[in-house]
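Before the break, one more example. Copy the sequence into your notebook; we will annotate it together after we see the structure.
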Amino acid sequence: MKKIIKTDDAPAPIGPYNQAVLTGDTLYISGQIAINPVSNELMTSNIQEETEQVMRNLKAILTAADMDFSNVVKSSIFISDMNNFAQINSVYSKYFDEETAPARETVEVANLPKFVNVEISMIALK
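Here is what the structure looks like once it is written out:
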């Protein structure tokens, strides 16, 4: 059985998908971009701010599912320019203990929704 996870503390979906789906003990979080859920504006003035907003959105969804970053077992990071990798990674790494960090891939792509610079999705386990 699947349970839809929804919170007003993260951006509302803009298509036929949900913020996250919990099935059994596994949470699948849709890719998050740097939309501020209060103002509905993109936070893209610099790559650090953009990545921080993405991580805040992910944290809000994890919280809505009674989880936190320690529950994350897999992250997928999509970036528009691999030259931003170090800056994105410096923000991302603040949310994880290196010894127990999740599996991850980072992929450069041609474009992302709303032409943002970074999108991150996660899988978490209770």
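The beta strands are 2-5, 20-23, 26-32, 72-79, 103-108, 118-125. The mean pLDDT is 97. Try to locate both features in your own notes.
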